[in-house]
Write a structure and sequence with these properties.
The chain is built from 10 helices and 12 strands. It is an alpha/beta fold. Among the domains are: 85 residues, Arc Repressor Mutant, subunit A (Orthogonal Bundle); 103 residues, Periplasmic binding protein-like II (D-Maltodextrin-Binding Protein, domain 2). The strands form 2 sheets. Strands 3, 4, 5, 6, 7, 8, 9, 10, 11 and 12 form a 10-stranded mixed beta sheet that branches. Strands 1-2 form a two-stranded antiparallel ribbon. The longest helix is centred in the first third of the chain and has 25 residues.
Length: 290
């Protein structure tokens, strides 16, 4: 078993392309390509389907990636133990989050401390974010969904709460707040199922016995904002994500519990890896206790 070839495969599987793997691994692309080809030829298997500039793992590649993830995680943990957790010199961190707002300050601080560290960031709803973590598609995640799964290690970052917003032309645009009961019979523009926004909001409606006129489902926050600005109904978003938009007016919900925690999470078995541990350390320093 050639560990150099396994590492080449692991770098490509982790990065999703030979070019990015070469940059993050400090190797040339031809070298990586040759090592992966030799590994495939030696065992007469296909590990990647080449797709333009990127690659997709075959079923055999996916199974091997699960093995190499454990293998090199153990190696990294051993190195970290032996070096006493000294400063990182390089590395690539794959981050998944349900919003860019909470994760960017952590990444900015991490980059200041460890300039050679690179990262990729994927934004999706909380269900997909958690799935990416379990599938080893992400090293660490930031999301507003608490989980009691024993495979997950989490750090509570801060609290956030849902707010409503309407177009400036809407009759509610002069109000500062409304009650959950006011939403009965209203058109609501909201994220797709699987998003924590949708989960918390529907929980609030159900607890109050409120039935809106319709739920207009839009898959992105930007899409929700545009639909509300166009007059399709009342939007729902976390307060931290509302930002500034002169077309929109924000309202607080006066009488419903629509508060959630924001968490930094990773797999328990990987939390001592140097890069992940560094990310968690920054998150702890930035955390705001209720």
């Amino acid at each position: 078993m050639n560990l150099t070839q396994l590492r080449a495969f692991h770098l490509v599987a982790q990065a999703g392309s030979f070019s990015l793997a070469a940059r993050t691994g400090g190797l040339t692309q031809p070298t990586l390509s040759a090592q992966v080809r030799e590994l495939e030829a030696r065992y007469a298997v296909g590990l990647f389907d080449r797709q333009g500039r990127g690659v997709r793992m075959t079923p055999t590649g996916q199974s091997l990636y699960a093995v190499t993830t454990r293998l090199f995680a153990a190696e990294d943990e051993a190195r970290s133990l032996l070096t006493g957790g000294r400063a990182l010199t390089r590395g690539h961190l794959r981050v998944s989050a349900d919003s860019a707002y909470h994760v960017m300050p952590i990444l900015a601080d991490l980059k200041k401390r460890h300039a050679a560290v690179t990262f990729t960031l994927k934004i999706d709803n909380s269900a997909v974010v958690l799935e990416q973590l379990f599938d080893h598609g992400a090293d660490v995640a930031v999301m507003a969904k608490a989980t009691s799964d024993p495979r997950i290690y989490s750090v509570r970052l801060r609290e956030d709460h849902l707010v409503l917003f309407v177009a400036e032309s809407h009759p509610w645009s002069r109000l500062r707040e409304c009650s959950i009961a006011d939403l009965a019979g209203q058109d609501i523009v909201i994220r797709e199922r699987g998003s924590i926004t949708r989960e918390v909001f529907e929980g609030g409606l159900a607890a109050a016995g409120v039935v809106p006129k319709s739920l207009i489902e839009v898959e992105t926050r930007e899409g929700v904002r545009e639909a509300v600005a166009a007059g399709f109904g009342i939007g729902v978003v976390f307060d931290s994500e509302f930002g500034q938009d002169p077309r929109l007016h924000k309202l607080d919900v006066s009488d419903a519990d629509v508060t959630v925690g924001e968490y930094v999470v990773c797999l328990q078995e990987r939390r001592r890896l140097a890069l992940i541990r560094a990310f968690l350390d920054v998150a702890r320093e930035q955390s705001i206790r209720p």
